[in-house]
Design a protein that fits this description.
By secondary structure, the chain is of the alpha/beta class. It is about 45% helix and about 15% strand. It contains 17 helices and 13 strands. The strands form 2 sheets. Strands 3-2-1-4-5-6-7 form a 7-stranded parallel sheet, with helices on both faces. Strands 10-9-8-11-12-13 form a 6-stranded parallel sheet, sandwiched between helices. The protein is globular. It starts with a strand and ends with a helix. About 45% of the residues are buried.
Length: about 400
């Protein structure tokens, strides 16, 4: 098949965030068996070497400059203009301000000349490039990653939004944008059953399939030993609102309670681009903020426990899967464990669940006091990832969706 993948987010190196990791690993798998063309945009952090490396994983790499509006916010008048444009068009401002007419024209040409069999949009922000008329000649697949409307609603509910007033203003626009999916796309792909349920509410006529995330097991090998000690770790891009909220919650609400029992306990926040709010957490005793590190795996292997204290955000979390792959016992929230069967009566215990501060304290104390339980979670977590959440499996599942839709298209 000739597959055109659209990703306005540059998916290399595959460590910038969840969107980049998922997009890169799926295109890497598909290009082994099909002709994959990736069209994307270059932003300031993309180096020439990044472009050369990414080009080696696809048949063709087409890169456009980031749209002018995405490089400059334009002050108060710009914000007013974006609000008017977004409301009138029914397209969220974070989609409009990255939109490239040149990229649109290039995609139109690929469709008009019959150069592609299938188009995939890697994340729903790219749906803006798909015209409803495309469905007459090619199959169009939306790899949603996460529904923007539910993401925003969840952040507002948990007071985790950086711009709550703005998000409330744009909620109806985002909902209109996502409702159009059923007119634009032949098929949808989500990462969890929760996201699929929400997609059905918004787009009841759009068929969808669950394709989970995965882990590169070579990048996250099983650790050779339990380090013991009192080192906790939380990993994630520290300029993302859900990670910022999680870090603040754990430091401010959980760490003081833990320090009453374990005065020397230490919490390391690992991830690139920490905001000032995250950096300020390092002023509190027993907390370190690393910023970007050479090896996330090294920090995971040093920790006795990985915590995933997310209160907002939907979908399977790569950070949870990566900690499990590395053999680090996990204590996580419902959001951090979404899409994972870890503590039901039908499976071996794979992680401990906590949502409230006292629940985190109890779970962490339990693990610190019980090395046998830590060993059990380490083995069971790694086994879960190996058998269910490898990128090879995710790639096969994604290819199956594309292959089935391609066959469906050719039926008389």
């Amino acid at each position: 098949m000739r597959i055109l993948m659209i990703s306005s987010t540059f998916p290399y190196p595959p460590s910038r965030g969840g969107t980049e990791i998922r997009t890169f690993n799926l295109l890497k798998y598909l290009n082994q068996f099909h002709d994959v063309t990736l069209v994307t945009q270059r932003h300031a952090d993309v180096s020439d070497e990044d472009m050369q490396q990414l080009a080696s994983y696809v048949r063709q790499l087409k890169i456009f400059d980031l749209a002018k509006d995405a490089r400059s916010h334009g002050g108060p008048l710009g914000k007013i203009g974006r609000f008017v444009s977004a409301t009138a068009s029914g397209t969220p401002p974070n989609v409009l301000h990255r939109y490239s007419p040149d990229m649109q024209q290039w995609i139109d040409t690929q469709v008009e000349t019959g150069a592609v069999d299938i188009i995939t949009c890697e994340h729903s922000v790219n749906a803006v490039y798909i015209r409803p008329s495309y469905k007459k000649s090619v199959r169009t697949i939306l790899n949603i990653h996460s529904l923007i409307y539910n993401w925003m609603l969840n952040h507002l509910h948990m007071n985790a939004s950086d711009y709550a007033l703005r998000d409330r203003l744009y909620l109806s626009t985002v909902k209109r944008y996502e409702k159009r999916y059923q007119q634009q796309f032949s098929h949808g792909v989500v990462t969890t059953s929760d996201d699929q349920d929400e997609l059905i509410k918004l787009c009841p006529h759009l068929e969808s399939t669950i394709v989970a995330n995965g882990v590169d097991l070579n990048l996250f090998p099983l650790r050779s030993r339990d380090p013991g000690g009192l080192e906790l770790v939380f990993v994630g891009a520290m300029n993302s609102s859900h990670n910022i909220d999680a870090a603040k919650f754990f430091v401010n609400s959980v760490m003081p309670l833990l320090r009453e029992k374990y005065p020397s306990i230490h919490f390391t926040i690992v991830g690139a681009s920490p905001t000032p709010a995250v950096e300020a957490l390092a002023k509190q005793e027993g907390v370190t903020v690393t910023g970007k590190v050479a090896s996330i795996t090294d920090y995971l292997h040093r920790a006795v426990i990985a915590v995933v204290p997310l209160r907002a955000g939907f979908g399977i979390k790569n950070k949870t899967l990566e900690a499990m792959a590395a053999g680090v016992p996990v204590v996580a929230s419902d959001r951090g464990l979404e899409g994972l069967e870890v503590d039901s009566s039908t499976v071996p215990l794979r992680a401990l669940r906590a949502n409230e501060p006292q629940e985190y304290v109890a779970a962490i104390r339990h693990l610190l006091d019980d090395p046998d339980l830590r060993a059990s979670l380490s083995i069971n977590g790694r086994s879960l990832v190996e058998h269910t959440f490898s990128w090879d499996k995710a790639g096969r599942d994604y290819e199956s969706v594309l292959t089935q839709t391609a066959k469906y298209q050719k039926m008389p």
